[in-house]
Amino acid sequence: MDAGTKILVVGDVRGRFKQLFQRVETVNKKAGPFEILCCVGDFFGDDKQNEELIAYKNGFKHITVPTYILGPNQKEHEKHFEDLADGEICTNLTYLGKRGVYTLTSGVKIAYLSGVESAGAADSAKSNHEFTKSDIFAVRNSCLVSKNCSTEYRGVDVLLTSQWPYGMQENANETASKLISFLCREIKPRYHFCAINGTYFECPPFRMPKDETTQFELCTRFISLADVGNSEKAKYIYALSLKPVDKSRLLDLVQKTTNEIPCPYAGLDLCGTVDKNDTSETRQYFYDMEKKKSKGQRGYGKKRRMQELNQEKCWFCLSSPDVEKHLIITIGERFYLALAKGPINRFHVMILSTKHLPCAAQLTTEDWEELDKFKNALRKFFKTIGQVVCFTERHYKSFHLQINVLGFEEGYAWKIKHSFEDKAEEFNLQFETLPALDSPKMLPEIGPYFLAELPDDSTLITRQMNHFPLHFARDVFCSENLLNCDEKVNWKECLLEKDEETTYVSDFRKGFAPFDFTV
């Protein structure tokens, strides 16, 4: 795992203390050191099994990683949590409490809620192993109290519950909690761990809809862990490395992944009913999926249909009525030049194919020759204004060939490659360096890729596209080493009024005219 706060989480222990702590010691030696071990689900088992803890209480055996547990989930286990001074059971074994937020020295915030939802309607639980709405609000308020304003809340790092949230799996809903679903939707954890169902289950990530607490759609990963030492050998221990949300780059928190599913909690109110006023696309898609779900699960095991492209609706095909023609600078036979939508600056343009082509790797010899003409013409133009040029192509989550073009002051030419390498290291990407591109045969025949043609006539390329950051090129260009405008990483934050776009196009067309071979 990369650098960060290392955390271990385990499912129901049920008195198998020796097996748990031996396994944790082994994992800690191999992949540690871990700062904390969190236990969700039932920590204690029957009285005979619990005798394994005596050796740890007496100091004959030691717990190597500080361990924190949730409270009881059944009345029979309440006796184990009575009369605990400051929650300490023995050295390195602590009861977190009924509910709250625990912040590690690194700043990682762990929200937790013990027990199961009370069956009654009262706001006070009948037993210590139950929670109610008041507990939910208390945890929510503890999470939100640190935010500075209504648009700056970034969620919490981890949520620990024993009981499952309602809506994750149909066959788990009878014993699941609608209040936990509500809590998860409100506090937006990056990871939500639970147990007591005796199964390991990890669904694809999903995004919480933005609300009055934040303008960002934050991602959650739900993980249910199996029992320690289960006969099926299902996963019961989970390791992760976290950088606190408050110290993370916003781009990392909002960057979407390829396998996300609709939020299972969209449309639920505090009582778990559907909010009739919620007409969001997420809610509509979610409830449409209800009709198609497989037995026992919300269709997570089914492959989603690949998005079919209607070329008439493609933003970039010249034959499409949706093309914003006022952005076009000049048109060739096979390619055209246009102002980028949401440009980083007034010289940020794109080379696009006139007909529908997915990537440069599929170009014919004739196509490549014209593309090369555009590139050379642009190099000459940028040189007249004292700049060098960089070309990038992302063949990933993009249906139409798009080559971004951006100029930099000549004195910055040497920084461009270093900036790509720095960002590649930050995103854990591996790039291969190629000579100048002179043929589509130099590109991957199949599969996605990202490439950058640099001013020194070298080419950086990667095929490591799983979870590739869509704004990677802009992230590089806007970095402090180059244009120093981090606020422009997201093109949607750079949209211009139509008349301003028209002015940019007119100015670029005039400057480019001496090099325009299409006229």
TrEMBL record:
Protein family (similarity comment)? Belongs to the CWF19 family.
| PANTHER family the UniProt entry points to | CWF19, CELL CYCLE CONTROL PROTEIN, CWF19-LIKE PROTEIN 1
GO biological process terms, semicolon-separated? mRNA splicing, via spliceosome
* MF (Gene Ontology): RNA lariat debranching enzyme activator activity
Q: Which residues form the Cwf19-like protein C-terminal domain?
A: 442-518
Give the protein name, as stated in the record: CWF19-like protein 1 homolog isoform X1
Q: Which gene carries the instructions for this protein? A: LOC6898782
Pfam family example for this protein? Answer: CwfJ_C_2
GO cellular component terms attached to this protein's record: post-mRNA release spliceosomal complex
- List each copy of the Cwf19-like C-terminal domain by range: 303-420
Protein's organism: Drosophila pseudoobscura pseudoobscura (Fruit fly)
Q: Could you tell me the superkingdom of the organism this chain comes from?
A: Eukaryota
**Record-linked CDD domains:** MPP_CWF19_N (cd07380)
